[in-house]
Amino acid sequence: MAGDDVIANPKNGREIRPTVRFYGWRPTAVSLGVHQLPEVVDLAQCAANGWEVVRRPTGGRALLHNGDLSYSVTLPGGAQSPHRLKDLYVAVAMAWIAVFRKFGLKADLAPLGRADSPGGTPGCPGAPAASKKVATQSMVIASCAVTPPGATRAGQRTT
Known about the structure:
BirA Bifunctional Protein, domain 2
């Protein structure tokens, strides 16, 4: 998470550069959405399990990261309009679908579902937007997004 913050908020007047960053989680961690209260998880039990608890710059509910691959896409500020963010979701989802199909996996955009968060916020994996969810036979990718000043960033989680 700190790496994404450095990329999206460069120092010394540097410009934000388009970036794709892949990362894993070691040790196992629970990530909380940006507005989520830490009381939703048992912090003592997480510590007893050796799990770190971190806060994501995106919304949504707590996620358990244990062996999954995460990545983020960061773009310069000119890409901040909601239309552009939707285009980013679709482009990323279609790229993942192409990769999975190349390896012989059946992959498609998941059907619209119910929103897991109040109001179905567009930057949250629980929101009902087919372009934000890709399903394969044994893997799911969910998108989330945050738009910090000067950047558009979409994050992905694969499990």
